[in-house]
Amino acid sequence: xxxxxxxxxxxxxxxxxxxxxxxxxxxxxxxxxxxxxxxxxxxxxxxxxxxxxxxxxxxxxxxxxxxxxxxxxxxxxxxxxxxxxxxxxxxxxxxxxxxxxxxxxxxxxxxxxxxxxxxxxxx
Length: 123
Known about the structure:
The chain is of the alpha+beta class and 123 residues long. The chain has helices at residues 2-35, 39-43; strands at 49-58, 64-67, 76-80, 85-93, 99-105, 110-114, 118-120. The radius of gyration is 26 Å and the shape is globular.
C-alpha cells in the first residue's frame, strides 16, 4: 500500500511541476512578444519631415521598389507596378540626395519608395 501512495504523490508533484513550468513559459513568451519592436516603428524612424497624408501613384513604366529604408542600399521588400498606389505619410532624403516617401500600399505593406518614380495621384 505504501508503494501506491508513493507513486500517487510523485505523480501529483510531476503534474504540479509541469503546470508551473507551462505557466512560466507563457508569461515569459508573452512579455517577450509585448516588448518586441514593430517593423513599422523601425522603418519610420528615418522620417525627417511629416507630410500631409497623400496617395502617390507609380508613374515609371518599370514600376518601383518599396524598400526597408530611404535609399537604394536598403533591402527591397516588394515592388509596385506602374499605376500602383502608395499612401505616403512622411519623407526623408537619402545620402544620394533623393527624396523618399514612407507609407503603405493598398495591402498595408509598409516601406519606402523613391519620389521620382511617383506622382501625386488620386485613388
